[in-house]
Amino acid sequence: MGKVLELENVHKAYKLGFIxxxxxxxxxxxxxxxxxxxxxxxxxxGAGKTTTIKCILNLIFPDSGRITIFGEDSLRPRARQKVGxxxxxxxxxxxxxxxxxxxxxxxxxxxxxxxxxxxxKYFLKLVGMERAADLQLRKYSRGMLQRIGxxxxxxxxPALVILDEPMGGLDPIGRKxxxxxxxxxxxxxxxxxLSSHILQDIEMICDRVAIILAGEIINQGYLGDLISEKVLFxxxxxGGVPAAEFSHLGESVxxxxxxxxxxxxxxxxxxxxxxxxxxxxxxIISLLPRTETLxxxxxxxxxxx
Amino acid sequence: xxxxxxxxxxxxxxxxxRVLYLLFFFVAVCLLFSRFLALLTxxxxxxxxxxVGLASISLFGMLMAILMGTGLVYKEIDKKxxxxxxxxxxxxxxxxxxxxxxxxxxxxxxxxxxTAVFMLILFLHTFAVDWKILLAILYIFFELCLMTAVAxxxxxxxxxxLASLYSLAFYLIGHLSWSLEMLIKKVKSGxxxxxxxxxxxxxxxxxxxxxxxxxxxxxxxxxxxxxVSFIYGVVYTAFLLLLAMLVFRRRDxx
Lengths: 305, 254
Ligand SMILES: Nc1ncnc2c1ncn2[C@@H]1O[C@H](COP(=O)(O)OP(=O)(O)O)[C@@H](O)[C@H]1O
Ligand SMILES: [Mg+2]
Description:
The complex is a heterodimer.
Chain A (H helix, E strand, L loop, with lengths): L2 E13 L6 E13 L3 E5 L6 H8 L7 E6 L2 E2 L9 E4 L11 H11 L4 H14 L15 H13 L5 E5 L7 H16 L3 E6 L2 H7 L2 E6 L2 E7 H4 L4 E9 L11 E6 L2 E6 L3 H12 L3 E9 L2 H11 L1
Chain B lengths: L1 H14 L2 H23 L4 H34 L2 H6 L5 H35 L5 H24 L4 H17 L1 H9 L4 H12 L9 H5 L6 H27 L5
Bound molecules: adenosine-5'-diphosphate and magnesium ion (MG).
Magnesium ion binds next to α1 of chain A.
């Protein structure tokens, strides 16, 4: 598997006003993205995700370090030949209609004539924007802009798709549709790099992740390696039995009405909980083993910093 | 090809710029004023119309070039539309050149429209067409191209308001620097004269493009002067664009 994107020790500081004081934002970021994977770039707001992406795309220049795209130095426009990009808050020419907007970028990418029309039609359908195609972008909602923006990013049949917070501004159905599209991109053999501060988005579809915190990569690797399969605790919701009965078996988190939410940490105690419920003629409403999630890892790391 | 796409999109955007309609309106008023003035003056009314007409085309063209030139690149950066654009495999130089050509196309069409109005008014007074007028306007257009490049250069590193002020200063200096040449002739040779020479060479001389007097008063225009002025315009404009590209090349878009 080849490396599609590689960052080596990238540093970037922003100038603050006229004073020559600089604010370091990226403090030696290194990671690589393998061909054909969905790579998640995870970090809280302000961690430096967008800054990293801007460095990759040459919108800003790193103070030091090296970035290669398909083995080509990112400083050369040619490196972006097979790259598609959807910015964080899509900013587009708002006087164009959706169709004109796609036509403009197609022209820019050297796609003309019949092929252009076909592509526009195809991608409008893919992102579900056929009906709004002849509306000016100024009349689009944020989610609609996100969709047309994704279409724009895919026009040149990119081998690497870079998406900055692609699910932002989408409703739940939109998020699902976007996830499906992204997974499909992978099936087509494309590599996807997506940033997010929302764990679920990344957890569900990414193969590998890098976690950035305050400008430093604090962890990276395969999701399976980062998350252990071990059961952390089991959440049991019980009806009809007072919480006090279980005090020796687990931690009762909350009670509402005659329901008790119980956290049981040892697996062998679960049977005893069930027995106790039966003895008291109560009932088990639900029983849910909780494995470690990316969120747990993430929260732990943020705490440890 | 990419440059054409950007240029045409710039033209599309410029067409929507309210600056254009406003200034076009002012030109119309201005030209009507010259007509009004001509009614009062018994003497050479046609000369006054030509004078005022050419001056307004030059002035309003300059305002358009500066206001649009300083606004368009800044807007792309400010509204962040430049992110998506530059993430495509295009050179920043191509982007700037596309912007420049789109603006020049806009200015050209505006100049043609102003000229049409102007020639019509003139025709109604003389019932004859003075083709030499077009020569003067052509050189006004060359000057406008140069001013567009100036505005573009300033807009690559500062806000529209400051860029407009700088461009205006450039314009004023450009139209006053010829007086340095007069001064040079009066100063005795020596260090002072050399310094003045250097200064004059560095400063722009926009009077090179001014053939208004010759045309209005029907004086002969030497072909060599036309040639030199044209080359001066091309070289100076290219130099300004090159400078703009150098500034733009390493700029961070945050
Ligand atoms: N233009 C700028 N000037 C100064 N600081 C900036 C600028 N843009 C971003 N920053 C700072 O850089 C940090 C990282 O920002 P960003 O990369 O946008 O974070 P993320 O995308 O992960 O939310 C933040 O602390 C932010 O305040
Ligand atoms: Mg961001």
